[in-house]
């Protein structure tokens, strides 16, 4: 179904990614100083996914990517895709599952992993 995953960058700012049903990152958000700003933008995106714009680009090395624009604001940039068809499949997955995707928060530093 896909998921929004909140995490921290190395500079202690927050970001979120949208992962596909298969666990691949489709896009990564811009940085947020505060976690609640990150959470608010996820909710805005979930509620308004139908009105989001996906601006498509081709990089100098021939890879395809998009910028996610919501209400005139650049929210996120996609990973690089080898073909325009794969790029479109990534966009289609966001449109189809974005409004119902769960939100996972991995931003806390207090995770304990045991053997």
From TrEMBL:
Domain of life of the source: Bacteria
SUPFAM superfamilies hit by this protein: YegP-like
InterPro entries: UPF0339_domain, YegP-like_sf
UniProt name for this protein: DUF1508 domain-containing protein
Organism in which the protein naturally occurs: Flavobacterium zhoui
Phylogenetic lineage: Bacteria, Pseudomonadati, Bacteroidota, Flavobacteriia, Flavobacteriales
């Amino acid at each position: 179904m896909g998921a929004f995953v909140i995490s921290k960058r190395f500079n202690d700012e927050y970001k979120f990614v949208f992962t596909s049903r298969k666990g691949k990152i489709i896009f990564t958000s811009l940085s947020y100083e505060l976690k609640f700003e990150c959470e608010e933008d996820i909710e805005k995106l979930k509620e308004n996914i139908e009105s989001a714009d996906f601006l498509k680009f081709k990089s100098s090395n021939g890879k395809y990517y998009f910028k996610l624009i919501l209400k005139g604001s650049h929210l996120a940039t996609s990973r690089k895709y080898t073909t325009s068809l794969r790029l479109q499949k990534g966009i289609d997955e966001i449109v189809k599952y974005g409004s119902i995707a769960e939100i996972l928060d991995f931003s806390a530093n207090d995770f304990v992993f045991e053997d």
